[in-house]
# Entry
Amino acid sequence: MKHFFARSGGRNQIIPGFGLSMGMTLTMLSLLILIPLASVLAHSLQLTANDYAKLITNSGIRNAFITSISCSVLAALVNCVFGFILAWVLVRYDFFGKRLLNGVIELPFALPTAVAGITLSKLYSDTGFFGSFFASYGIQIAYTKIGLTIAMVFVGIPFVVRSIQPVLEKLDPTYEEAGSMLGASQFTIFRRIIFPELRSALLTGFGLAFAPMSVS
# Structure
């Protein structure tokens, strides 16, 4: 197995070129994340306590926080409901197009955020495919809290599905069979056997769906 190792600095390394790879990684991390964050921190430290208080209590910033957090909570709750249903269908049922549906769930991960935003704003605008229907009833969706929530649901639902799906796949069906043999109803089996096993995964999915949206 010696040919799988490369010698560097007197030590055997599994991955050749570790120093170069780590250097490029740290360089990109510094340019894209660390340096911008450090500049923001340095600028914020120049503010006095009075300036910071005025900035935080500004009506525009306060409304932005309220809108972002409230829409994120609502979107995460919607994602928990429909994400749970999607995960349940993908794990418990076999149907035509299952692989396609399983792949489509990953679409928000692969689609650039700008492309998703432009597409959704066009679809839900007053002249868009979906927005025109609601506009006929006087309901505006694009560039409102409703549209923002829809966009957050679109981006966040894969987090919930992928958090619940592996736990549901590994859930031992013998407990459900035992509950059924003892005369428990389907609702009781779900409430007492299935849901307790999925609670942690559901909370994880909620946190993953909420966190990126609330800070965006």
In short: The first strand starts at residue 6 and ends at 8.
